[in-house]
Write a structure and sequence with these properties.
By secondary structure, the chain is of the alpha+beta class. Helices cover 36% and strands 17% of the residues. The chain has helices at 10-21, 25-37, 110-117, 135-139, 143-154, 167-180, 188-194; strands spanning 7-8, 43-50, 60-62, 66-67, 77-78, 83-84, 88-90, 99-109.
C-alpha cells in the first residue's frame, strides 16, 4: 500500500486536539475515542496477528474494514504505541481472513481530526476571540461551551436539582444529545461543571 501523508499516531493526535481546543489531555483522548467510535474521523490500522488462526499479516486496512467498538474509551487504547489493547474484528470480504486481529498500530487522518475536533473546523467550535476572560475560562472552551449549549437545549427551563435528576442521568442525556447532533462528546466532569454541579 503506498504511503499516504497526513496521518497521526494516537499520542500526537491527542496533543494536537489538547493544544488546539485548550482542553485537558484526558478530555482530548475521550473526544478522540468518541470520534473513532462514531466513525467521524478516518483511521487506518496495520494488522499483526490473527487471534484464532496461525496467521500474521502486515496489511494496512481502512477504518471501514474494522468493526470498531461503539463504546471505545481512552483506557481501551495504548496511546504511546498507538494501538487498541484488545483485538478488533476485521470484516469479511477483504484481502485477509475475517475475525479478531491484534493490531500493530492505528493512525488518524490529520485533516479530519482537525476538522472534527479542533476549533475552527467545519464541525468544531470557532476559535474564541480575545477577551477579558481569565486564562482558565478560555482554556475550558470549546468543550465546555458545547456541553453548556447541550444542557440548555436538553433542559430549557433549567437543570433540576440532583434529587430529581442525578448526575449520571444528566451526563447520559447530554452525552446522547451531543452524539445525536454529530458533535464530539465531552467528559462527565465538563458536563457537571457546565451545569454548575462541580467547580
Amino acid at each position: 500500500m503506498p504511503y499516504l501523508p497526513g496521518w497521526e499516531r494516537l499520542s500526537d493526535a491527542a496533543t494536537s486536539v489538547m493544544t488546539a481546543a485548550g482542553i485537558a489531555n484526558d478530555e482530548a483522548r475521550s473526544n478522540i475515542c468518541q470520534a473513532i467510535a462514531d466513525r467521524k474521523v478516518k483511521i487506518r490500522g496495520k494488522l499483526g496477528r490473527h487471534t484464532t488462526k496461525p496467521i500474521r499479516s502486515s496489511t494496512v486496512l481502512e477504518g471501514k474494514d474494522f468493526e470498531i467498538p461503539t463504546d471505545l474509551k481512552l483506557e481501551d487504547l495504548d496511546w504511546e504505541r498507538s494501538r487498541p489493547l484488545k483485538p478488533w474484528f476485521v470484516r469479511r470480504g477483504g484481502s485477509v481472513p475475517a475475525g479478531y486481529w491484534d493490531l500493530d498500530w492505528i493512525q488518524l487522518s490529520r485533516t479530519e481530526l482537525t476538522n472534527r475536533l479542533c476549533p475552527g473546523g467545519p464541525r468544531g467550535e470557532p476559535a474564541q476571540p480575545a477577551s477579558s476572560e481569565t486564562g482558565a475560562k478560555r482554556r475550558r472552551r470549546p468543550a465546555f461551551d458545547r456541553a453548556q449549549r447541550a444542557i440548555k437545549e436538553e433542559y430549557p427551563h433549567g437543570v433540576p436539582d440532583q434529587a430529581a435528576e442525578p448526575n449520571a442521568n444528566l451526563c447520559g442525556r447530554v452525552g446522547k444529545r451531543l452524539k445525536n447532533e454529530g458533535l464530539p462528546g465531552v467528559s462527565d466532569d465538563t458536563i457537571l461543571r457546565a451545569a454548575d454541579r462541580r467547580k
